[in-house]
Write a structure and sequence with these properties.
Blueprint lengths: L2 H22 L3 H12 L3 H25 L5 H24 L2 H21 L1
């Protein structure tokens, strides 16, 4: 892939990922990983990089949601411990699994979420 196409993919994909995350309050990582893989990153590196890309998106989106009154403190406080432990477990699992297993788990998760949304 030519460098200008790769650069356009990253900039355009970044706008798309940011817009989806801002609109839905998350989900940009589901788009970010395939975009990073199309850019040329291997599966594990794409997943790890997507996490760092999503951080500023979450901060900006959360700030706007909080400013507009869309914030439930109790839900956040109750979720923080579980989310933090789950993130640590997921990061450790990413290190242990091979790229094929990570891709299969990611694909299964995307299919399950798609089915859930379709059937809801």
């Amino acid at each position: 892939m030519k460098d200008n196409v790769k650069t356009g993919l990253i900039y355009g994909g970044g706008v798309l990922v940011g817009a989806v995350s801002g609109f839905f309050g998350g989900g940009g990582g589901m788009l970010c990983v395939p975009l990073l893989e199309a850019y040329g990153l291997d599966c594990k590196r794409a997943h790890a990089t997507a996490l760092l890309i999503i951080l500023p998106i979450c901060i900006v989106s959360a700030s706007i949601y909080i400013a507009n009154g869309y914030f439930e403190a109790t839900a956040v406080l109750c979720s923080v411990i579980g989310v933090t432990l789950g993130a640590a477990a997921g990061a450790l699992a990413l290190d242990k699994l091979n790229g094929t297993a990570v891709a299969a788990i990611f694909a299964a998760l995307m299919i399950a979420v798609g089915l859930k949304l379709t059937l809801s």
